[in-house]
Design brief:
The protein contains 16 helices and no strands. The chain is mainly α. The longest helix has 38 residues.
Length: 417
């Protein structure tokens, strides 16, 4: 329930930003956050993946998590300050005009990434999602007050970045609260070395996946109008809402594998969830095809008249992306990161080559089709690899049986504080 509420609140934040501004302004903000997210990904070295993996197996303690997280956050913020001092014009371009926003976003997102992964690794799902939901609702209320008082859009966006930082502080506070009675682990060089080895492997896969998810932003920003780019990016952001459910379930898969808990049950969960996703995305596609255009106009405003068509073209890819999230968690938990890297590389190449090939007749619709193709290829590779590892597991996704419903219900009935 808490995770569902967070998904809904995140969707409402996107709707509020779009409603209180317009397609061009929204596109500018989300394009900037895509740049900032890449900075966090590379600068943070995907350390959250390693921290979650080793913390789940109790191979490192909370003190080591805090030490490594604080070191990386401090180092990256210092590097940004150095770049701003030495290359002010480049820094302005890099930040897309959000000079202070880049610091709040990087700081808050890294706090959230590092400590949310460790909380999830110990099956602490409820508190983090309740806090994030409450902060999202407070953000919407604050934006509404500012918009009602005719504050400029720049102030609304500054508020958005402040709340990214507040969210990170909130997650960190929950982590501190939960470790008060934890046994102290003695840090040693071997453990740190293993953590960084895992992180570097995960980094390459995550950078490749980031390119798959965000490479189209740069092409759309370059080869379409600012309003069209705003429509595309907003549709892409809403598409991310549809894959939040598998992203929330992925830590459960990851932790079950990493701790060697319930292997047979895990396979039942994976197949049942993929069947559920197929049903849900077919239903969503039909609903969007029938009335999506009117819903977009009502919620976001008339400047987002192309967003629904873009989302429809992304929907098949989103189904495969949902399956990929689960399988990537499985491979990560079994330390088969190489499979994730190969799949990400295939998808990234397709995304890059595909976007380059359509430059002469570039449009947001062609960009959506290329993204769908890239997601599909990555998921097909993951499904093939999973089947190769587990040849006895049935991959038939077109039919449900009672055991599938029982498996799904058992996942959503998990109650962890």
């Amino acid at each position: 329930m808490a995770r569902s509420l967070y998904v809904l609140s995140a969707l409402l934040v996107n709707v509020a930003i779009a409603r209180f501004t317009d397609a061009a302004a929204t596109g500018s903000l989300f394009f900037a956050t895509a740049i900032f997210s890449l900075i966090v990904l590379i600068g943070g070295m995907s350390l959250e993946s390693a921290l979650g993996y080793f913390y789940a197996g109790k191979k490192i303690g909370a003190q080591q998590v805090i030490l490594m997280a604080c070191f990386h956050i401090t180092a990256l913020l210092f590097l940004l300050l150095l770049i701003q001092f030495l290359f002010p014009h480049f820094f302005t371009t890099l930040s897309n005009g959000f000079i202070s926003g880049i610091y709040w976003f990087v700081f808050g997102t890294m706090l959230t990434n590092y400590f949310l992964s460790t909380l999830y690794s110990r099956k602490q799902y409820v508190k983090p999602n309740v806090i994030q939901t409450a902060l999202n609702m407070l953000l919407i209320f604050t934006l509404w007050i500012e918009q009602s008082n005719h504050y400029p859009v720049s102030i609304l966006f500054q508020t958005y970045f402040y709340f990214v930082l507040i969210n990170g502080i909130g997650i960190f506070s929950i982590f501190i609260w939960n470790i008060k009675n934890e046994k102290v682990f003695i840090a040693n060089k071997v453990k740190f070395t293993k953590v960084y080895q895992y992180a570097f492997q995960a980094l390459w896969a995550n950078v490749l996946f980031f390119l798959v998810y965000r490479l189209d932003y740069w092409f759309v920003h370059q080869y379409t109008t600012i309003t069209e780019a705003g429509n595309y990016i907003q549709a892409s952001k809403l598409a991310q809402m549809f894959i939040l459910l598998p992203q929330f379930i992925a830590p459960v898969i990851f932790n079950s594998v990493a701790t060697n808990a319930g292997t047979q049950q895990l396979h039942l969960w994976l197949i049942a969830l993929m069947k559920l996703f197929l049903l849900l995305f077919v239903l969503l596609f039909c609903l969007l095809a029938i009335g999506g255009h009117y819903v977009f106009a009502l919620l976001l405003g008339n400047s987002f008249n192309d967003a629904n068509n873009v989302l429809l073209l992304l929907m098949p890819g989103l189904f495969f992306l949902s399956c990929l999230n689960l399988l990537s968690a499985y491979f990560g938990g079994t330390n088969r990161i190489r499979i994730n890297m190969i799949g990400a590389a295939l998808a990234a190449v397709i995304a890059l080559v595909g976007n380059i090939c359509i430059i002469p007749f570039y449009s947001i619709y062609w960009a959506a089709l290329i993204s769908t193709l890239a997601y599909t290829i990555a998921a097909v590779w993951a499904l093939y690899s999973y089947k190769k590892i587990n040849p006895s597991v049935s991959m038939a996704l077109y039919s449900f049986n009672p055991s599938d419903w029982y498996a799904i219900r058992s996942i959503f009935n998990l109650k962890h504080e």
